[in-house]
């Protein structure tokens, strides 16, 4: 292999590596969001537990947000602490969640 071909291969390989690094770090980014909507489902029989909230967007379309509910998630009904088992389908709720590469994780749920 000539030196020019070898150097071109090394530069090309390095170029691919530098392009891949920002993409993978961006994919690992964690984003926190809060939604306000109606509880459409909960499941306390799985580990971790789950909650699904339907949100009505400004254009009147529905957005369904399902998240895992780990044991450290803060759940409140009014000002009182609550459990996910206390949350009923049809109730209005605000949910703050983290969007991670592993999926959505509820950080807090406030039932109104």
Computed over alpha carbons, the radius of gyration is 22 Å
Distance between the termini: 71 Å
CATH topology assignment: OB fold (Dihydrolipoamide Acetyltransferase, E2P)
- Low-pLDDT sequence parts: 1-25
CATH superfamily: Copper binding periplasmic protein CusF
Count of DSSP strands: 7
The main pleated sheet reads as: 7 strands, mixed
Q: What is the architecture at the second tier of CATH?
A: Beta Barrel
Q: What is the number of helical segments per DSSP (H or I, 4+ residues)? A: 1
What class do helices, strands and sheet pairing give?
alpha+beta
Query: N-to-C SSE series?
Result: HEEEEEEE
Q: On the 0-100 scale, what is the average pLDDT?
A: 81
Strands of the widest sheet, in order across it, are 3-2-1-6-7-4-5
Percent strand equals over 45%
Shape: globular
**CATH class term:** Mainly Beta
| Share of helix, binned | 10-25%
How many individual domains? 1
Note the main attributes of this structure.
disordered N terminus; alpha+beta; 112 residues; OB fold (Dihydrolipoamide Acetyltransferase, E2P); 22% helix; globular; single chain
What report would you give on this structure?
Helix content is 22%, strand content 47%. β4 and β5 (80-81) form a beta hairpin. With 112 residues, the protein is of the alpha+beta class. The protein has a single domain, classed as OB fold (Dihydrolipoamide Acetyltransferase, E2P) (Beta Barrel). A 7-stranded mixed sheet has the order 3-2-1-6-7-4-5, with no helix packed on it.
